[in-house]
Design a protein that fits this description.
single chain, alpha/beta, Spore Coat Polysaccharide Biosynthesis Protein SpsA, Chain A, 8-stranded mixed beta sheet, 10 strands, about 30% helix
Length: about 200
């Protein structure tokens, strides 16, 4: 299994700042996410259309070729580039990812082509495992844009909220940043969990 970090999007609500490079505990989000994922996977891939921003990180970088196509294009590009059977996909603006949740989702890899957690009644497709078997379905639905567009065409294993809570009781893995207010909230949550 490889890890695929999606670092795209226009970041309009953050004033154009690159969300992956926002900081928590004095470090860029993407560095924290790589540090969490690297011991759990064979290799880490970053999907971005701004590769120069990430070359210093020592991970594999792939570009979509077509900007503005959203995270589904990033997932397709990463799966195509990966040598592994599957990729654990995360967004670069969710730095509180919990290793226990990555392990819990990955443990279900044989149960579906996609293994996707449920949280508070919602599907969380950007903290999920996707096998290369999803590629034909992704190709067929790329124009629809939404990640879940291809789900009806593959076997999806949904990880129940109870199982998610056992690994990540507060759902920290799903807290992402879209606005300056989100960033303040994330930092407050992080400090409240006893982190420096």
């Amino acid at each position: 299994m490889d890890a695929l970090i999606l670092s795209g999007g226009g970041s309009r609500r953050m004033g154009g700042l690159v969300k992956a490079l926002l900081t928590l505990r004095g470090r860029p989000f993407i560095e924290l996410i790589i540090e969490i994922l690297a011991p759990l996977v064979e290799s880490v891939i970053v999907s971005t259309n701004e590769p120069d921003l990430y070359r210093r990180l020592g991970v594999r970088i792939v570009t979509d070729g077509e900007e503005g196509r959203g995270p589904l294009m990033g997932i397709r590009t990463g799966l195509q580039a990966s040598d592994a059977d599957a990729c654990f996909v995360v967004a670069a603006d969710a730095p509180l990812l919990q290793p226990a949740l990555v392990r819990a989702i990955s443990a279900r890899a044989r149960d579906g082509d996609a293994v996707v957690p449920l949280w508070r009644g919602e599907i969380e497709p950007l903290c999920a495992l996707y096998s290369r078997r999803c590629l034909p379905a992704i190709e067929r639905t790329l124009d629809r844009g939404r990640v879940v567009s291809f789900f009806p065409l593959v076997r999806v294993c949904y990880v129940s909220e109870d199982m998610v809570r056992a690994a990540d009781p507060e759902g920290l893995s799903f807290i992402n940043v879209n606005t300056p207010e989100d960033l303040e909230r994330l930092r407050a949550i992080d400090e409240g969990n006893g982190r420096p």
